[in-house]
């Protein structure tokens, strides 16, 4: 069982917006603005798409946005495209031990 | 652009030691935190541990008794040793750079699949 809770799957049609939630506790998400999100295609390494809750690395589309409220973080993808179909993982700082905790991952299907 | 490349045996016998190396190119290994993350087939990500070029390290409590991470700055290499492996340690192992500011991973290797089986 993962430390952070994500829905196993979400789906949406091209052009729509979807939101993936990531629920933690007051010891991780609730205590630090250090939530990150990763996109992973099958048999590929995870790719960072959001860090520090809402910042995008260079080259990441503005269609990806992140937010946090209390112990829950969210990733929103707007204007869904077929290429967005992938697994998405959230991650949060959790203090010294453990350093970070991950969510179990969410499979996004673009209908 | 920093690049990371994991290498090591793809098959390890139960009770033996899993040893992997991560070569860092395109940037300095010094002054940064580097870590290992693994992903069992069809499952999620698990942080294993990190090391700073200064020598400080930190490990996942669930693996701490079996894990050692080391670094050779002269070779720009990060290493992972996981002792007394079982089938549960079968996974793709990634090395990654920790972003300055902390707690996120800005560069990843492609990963290497290690299977534990006799």
Characterize this entry briefly:
The complex is a heterodimer of chains A (111) and B (118). With 111 residues, chain A is an all-beta fold. Chain A contains no helices and nine strands.
Verbal overview:
- The complex is a heterodimer of chains A (111) and B (118).
- Chain A starts with 8 loop residues before the first strand and ends with a strand.
- Chain A is globular.
- In chain A, strands 1, 3, 4, 7, 8 and 9 form a six-stranded mixed beta sheet that branches. Chain A has a three-stranded antiparallel beta sheet with strand order 2-6-5, with no helix packed on it.
- Chain A contains no helices and nine strands.
- Chain A is an all-beta fold and 111 residues long.
- The model of chain A has no long low-confidence stretch (mean pLDDT 95).
- Chain B is mainly β and 118 residues long.
- In chain B, 0% of the residues lie in helices and 52% in strands.
- Chain B contains no helices and eleven strands.
- In chain B, strands 2, 4, 5, 6, 9, 10 and 11 form a seven-stranded mixed beta sheet that branches. A four-stranded antiparallel beta sheet of chain B has the order 1-3-8-7, with no helix packed on it.
- Chain B is globular, with a radius of gyration of 13 Å.
- Chain B starts with a strand and ends with a strand.
- The mean pLDDT of chain B is 96.
- Classes of the chains: A mainly beta (111), B mainly beta (118).
- The interface between A and B is medium-sized, with 27 and 20 residues.
| Biggest interface | A-B, 27 and 20 residues
Which range best describes the helical content of chain A: under 10%, 10-25%, 25-40%, 40-55%, 55-70% or over 70%? under 10%
Beta-strand proportion of chain B: over 45%
Q: Overall mean pLDDT score of chain A?
A: 95
Mean pLDDT of chain B: 96
How would you characterize the largest beta sheet of chain A? 6 strands, mixed
Order of helices and strands of chain A: EEEEEEEEE
Percent of residues in helices of chain B: under 10%
Globally, the shape of chain B reads: globular
């Amino acid at each position: 069982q993962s430390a952070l809770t994500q829905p196993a799957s979400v789906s949406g049609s091209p052009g729509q917006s979807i939101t993936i939630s990531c629920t933690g506790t007051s010891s991780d998400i609730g205590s630090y603005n250090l939530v990150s999100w990763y996109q992973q295609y099958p048999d590929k390494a995870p790719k960072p798409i959001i860090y520090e809750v809402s910042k995008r690395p260079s080259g990441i589309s503005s269609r990806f946005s992140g937010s946090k409220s209390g112990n829950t973080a969210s990733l929103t993808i707007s204007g869904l495209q077929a290429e967005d179909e992938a697994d998405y993982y959230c991650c949060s700082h959790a203090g010294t031990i453990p350093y970070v905790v991950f969510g179990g991952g969410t499979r996004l299907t673009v209908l | 652009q920093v690049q990371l490349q994991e290498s090591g045996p793809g098959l390890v016998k139960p009770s033996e030691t899993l040893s992997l190396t991560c070569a860092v190119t395109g940037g300095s290994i010094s002054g940064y935190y580097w870590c290992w993350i693994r992903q069992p087939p069809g499952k999620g990500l698990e942080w294993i541990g990190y090391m700073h070029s200064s020598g400080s390290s930190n490990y996942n409590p669930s693996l701490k008794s079996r894990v050692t991470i080391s670094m050779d700055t002269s070779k720009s290499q990060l290493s992972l040793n996981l002792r007394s492996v079982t089938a549960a340690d079968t996974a793709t192992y990634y090395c990654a750079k920790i972003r300055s500011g902390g707690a996120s991973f800005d560069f990843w290797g492609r990963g290497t699949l290690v299977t534990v089986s006799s």
